[in-house]
Amino acid sequence: MSVAALARPTVRGRIAGPLASTLDFLRLMSRKRLGLIGLMGVVFFAILAYVVPFFVPVQDTVDVTAIYQLPSAAHPLGTDSSGRDVWNQIIHGGRDILTVGLIAGFFSTLIAVTFGSIAAVVGGKMDSLISGATDFWLTIPHIPIIVLLGSILKFNSIFVIAAFLALLTWAGLLRQVRAQVLSLKERDYVEAARSLDLGLFHIIFKEILPNMRSYIAIHFILAMTGAIYGVAGLTILGLIPLSGQNWGLMLNFAYVRGALYFKDSLWYILSPVLAIVLFQLSLVWLANALEDIFNPRLRSSG
Amino acid sequence: MPSTKAGAVPERLEADQVLSVRGLSISYATRRGAVQAVRDVSFDLRRGETLAIIGESGSGKTTLAVSLIRLSPRTARITKGRILYRKDDDTIDVASLPDDDLREFRWSECAMVFQAALNSFNPVISIWEQFLDTAQAHGMKNAQEVRARSGELLRLVNLDPERVLRAYPHELSGGMKQRVLIAMSLLLKPSIIILDEPTTALDILTQRAIIDLLRKLREQLGFSMIFISHDLSLAAELADRVLTMYAGTVVERASVKDLFYRPRHPYSMGLLRAVPRVSGALGSVVSIAGSPPDLIDLPEGCTYNPRCPFVIDECRVREPELLPVDTPQHDARCIRWKHVAELLGKDEAVVSEKMATAT
Amino acid sequence: MTVSGDITVKGKPLIELVGVSRTFKTPGGVIKAVDSVSLALGQSEAMCLVGESGCGKTTTGRLLAGLLRPSSGQLLFEGKDVWTTKGEELARFRRSVQLVHQDPYASLNPIRTVYQTLSAPLFRHKRARDRRGAVAAVTDLLQRVGLTPPADFLVKYPHQLSGGQRQRVSIARALSVDPRVIVADEAVSMVDVSIRISLLNLLLALRDEFRVTIVLITHDLAVARYFARKGRIGVMYLGRVVELAGSEPVVGDPAHPYSAALVAAIPEADPTLTRSKERVELRSAEVPSLLRLPSGCTFHPRCPLFEEGLCDVKEPELLPLPGSREVACHVAVRERAPAAELLAVR
User: Fold this and answer.
1) pLDDT tens digit sequence for B64-97
2) Is C81 part of the contact surface with chain B (CB cutoff 8 Å)?
3) What ipTM does the predicted assembly reach?
4) Residue A213: which residues within 8 A CB-CB, separation 6 or more?
5) Strand B192-196 vs strand B110-113: parallel, antiparallel, or unpaired?
6) Which residue of B has its CA nearest to C202?
7) What tens digit of pLDDT does each residue of A242-265 get?
8) Are the CB atoms for B287 and B274 separated by under 8 Å?
9) Which pTM does this prediction carry?
10) What residues form DSSP beta bridges with A248?
11) Residues near B329 by Cβ (< 8 Å), separated by ≥ 6?
12) CA–CA separation, C146 and A163 (whole Å)
């Protein structure tokens, strides 16, 4: 083995870095049943929402003779108030919801981690400024703001909605990140890094934040679930005028079209609800398992 | 008090024996599999005797001590052996006592003093409330009786009851907290007290005070004492007999003088040689090579063999039995004990001194 | 103020605390954790600061390492006042004095391998330019601290090492920037008893081979005695140095009554010796709070040599005694070196 190779953590055989990490990850996951189910669930819904629509065209034809049909071979999840296939709507309805969740989760986490760690490590006036802004933001009531902004802004793109939802959720996460970084900052190894003069960048990005990987990943996932509930809820309530198809809209229509009063419409209502809930559950199980995976103590058998 | 039916066993302990542990093995369930934390431990404790169980990390001493009063976590299981206790004329096996009888056994027959430094107190209630809770949990219901007894005990440990009972744990110093824990253990006049690292993390002068206190209490109240520690000097101060533990099992059993001046197991010898004295000549002080073993992955044969300076091939084949050596009531788990005996002889001098003149 | 430093330090001191005090604000008031301490250390010295909790030894260690700023007094490094320097010079001082922490379980980043931990300062300070060079340099460091074979340790995470091994990695990390002084703050206290000596020997070997001054802070007098055999022990009480001498004089013939009490009180791993040791009876077991320090000599309420009118009125200075030692005690100085008080530099 070359001298340089000695410096890399053990890899199985001679496989190159990224592939080995993925295999390592899957190997660890296989030990956690719920996490594995969660992972499979997330992958399933991701494929369903992003890949399947390329192969299955949208079924938009209205057929009043087939309202609220029960599940059958032709319609696995029955039909809606206009006779359209529910399963088809589920396939096409996931994309917008998931995309909003991803983007909102990403931005929310990015803002919270960046400013939270800067506030904690730099301290002083910077910290007061950031913390003050965060506390102020936290006291703002969300629903009235949404309604207010909804009437002013144009919620016509996924991106705008995602950014908006991110803005609502970053504050809580920032405070937690800041608290976590503050406590990690006091660790002996961080003090050592300081006296070795390793620099602010190194201390934040190589010493502190990597110790919070699971924390950040889990929060990203939870921010995502929050955003998904947010967009679904807002769509159901009709506060976001998204067009096209998505799970939230299905429920909005169900509510508006009085599907709640028909017993045959059970599948129409249940399908989007189940889709959202199952996806969220998969995310949460995945998040739980990630906590253990990121802990190096469990990686090797040593 | 425990009924004669519960936990009764055919074995009988002599009148002056208060505790006899026989072949005790305890295993822990961990993420990496079952760990044998304690393997085949046997020892006797006489009335009024003080036993020191000495060991370092991974020795199993703490697991052993908490299991004597069955306070181990749920992941720990006694897989084999007996813990025989003599109460009046009966002999019971603590290892198989049902829960109710166990609660009666604990604190009134055998009490434990935990390490004060390690969060042994409930931080949000006062010392008085801790006394009351403990007393009531073990059958002392009358609050006035508890108050009188706590006052008596706190005075016995040189603390002012008025001041201490109303205080909260964080208001007391380490030494004071340790004294409170000792006082609490004496609430129901137990025959045996088990102490877990009673002087660790305490300052020198405070350690001295606690050691002198234990000596005085032992003299006045006559209880038997088992204490576990990594601090050899504590054993030298208080113990009548010493057990050395390594990798979950007993490697040497001896009277205190025999262990300090005439050890026969290479680990005991290595441990003694690794501790410098303050008074007297420094002698030849040397650390033990290597690291403590991983209990999941123990070496073949004698568990000490990777670190032993006297190792021979046979040591790697089979773990030795605990067998008597050349002084009475003295056993060592080593096939080369005679070699150790040759090196150290029988004089009353510490190992580091003997090795200084030998080399 | 005192004549310390010139007694056993040859030539100019490498690092010096001159009349340093450090106060802290606590809910109960302001406490002086370190009170007018002057300590001079030369190159390749082995100094041990010993005392009980609250004596200020850890604070003194952190003051020496530049991790705490003195409230008054100066920290001199190579003759220059550290806290008035800036930029590159201050950074150079920071690297020159390294601290090794007490807790082996907290001193290393759990998610970084030994290689990553040790190579970071090498890259940062341009002692290695590429991976090959870094591996070579890290291998060399591991060898120096006795972690052999080094290749085995490069890829390990801290949880795969024992406490003693982790401390060695910490020491290697400190060495990676070629320090002149290493402050080991209770560095052996949380390590198994049977391997403490080997760590102390490592520190002493570094002193001999690489001319690094080692300051060991400990509450264990036996560790202090072993470590400072060829150096000095400073006994501290309530923020002050009360005795400064070689290790054998302190344990064999302690001049300060507090040192004598410590030596007499410490239990020994020798049954006959320890059970027959003569104790020094102190007048009071209570340790005064730093918020309400006694007048005059802070030890006077407990001191068996207490003289009314003297000890509770006048604070004793650290004065020289014959045999290259110093003590801060009126009675001890009077009995051992009557002329010294007259020579005291005011």
Assistant:
1) 999 998 888 888 889 999 999 988 878 889 888 8
2) no
3) 0.88
4) A294, C111
5) parallel
6) B287
7) 666 777 777 777 777 776 777 777
8) yes
9) 0.85
10) none
11) B241, B253, B254, B255, B258
12) 55
